[in-house]
Amino acid sequence: MELTRFGVWASVRGIDEPDLGEAVALAEQLGFGAFWLGASPRLQTVRPLLGASERLVIATGIVNVWDYDPAELAAEFWELEADFPGRLLLGLGIGHPEAISAYDRPLSKMRSFLGGIAAAERPVPRERMTLAALGPKMTDLSFERTLGTHPYFTPPAHTKFARERLGPNALVAPELAVVVDDDHLSAKVAAREYARFYLQLRNYTSNLLRFGFTEEDLTGGGSEHLVDTIVPQGSADQLAAAVQAHLDAGADHVCVQTVGVQGVPTQQWRALAEALIDA
Questions:
Q1: What is the pTM of this model?
Q2: Maximum CA pair distance of the chain?
Q3: Where are the alpha helices (DSSP H) in 211-276?
Q4: What does the alpha-carbon distance between residue 199 and residue 192 come to, in Å, rounded to a whole number?
Q5: Which domains, and CATH codes, for the chain?
Q6: N or C: which end of the chain has fewer CB within 10 A?
Q7: Cα-flanking dihedrals φ and ψ of residue 209, to 5°?
């Protein structure tokens, strides 16, 4: 499984489900190595995405462990693996207390869930899973039991932390939201609108406070410093520098999410591919 250095991240919040196959085919055509499907998908949702491409890695970003029985998830993984060998990366995550009434002891829940996968009739191989880890203990678990970490809504400083904590052999594959727009004002509006939702979730805000941001940075949809760091805006060439900052901090793979656009982001992905892959 070769993720390459660059992937794209998308969900049905931005691309309607009937159009995801078109998006996957475009991502493969442009040379991205992976397509990350977000928003807590059921695993069978990725079947048509695997069918719409020939070699692209399809990754989940993330399957929510509160929504699944681990043995059921392992069985679904192997159904897809039989038809599309070597192309599915199972990203797992713990979700957010604001959205899950049963949320409690997230690290224990994740350990238990991974234990359930290991005890399944056919366990999912360690190298075919990754965890959405933010804090140090979940980050440690990501490489103890899976290929590594897929953090979301994080600065390059977090990528550096993950690399230093996990060492050279773990996968570090952060998501990076970007606004491809040369108009400074409209780009900032789109970035802040996107950030405002995530700044209501304490898993993310607690993590940002660990990496140099302040309570003041978290208010009003995010300070300019926070928004520019977490959701950079500008031309594709300018955004390539923001992607490179994560690579320089130790990322193996950066999956770019284009925000502020609905539908298949053809123009934005083409520009990013030219700036990142064809440079």
A1: 0.97
A2: 54
A3: 224-230, 236-249, 266-276
A4: 10
A5: 6-276 (3.20.20.30)
A6: C
A7: -65, -25
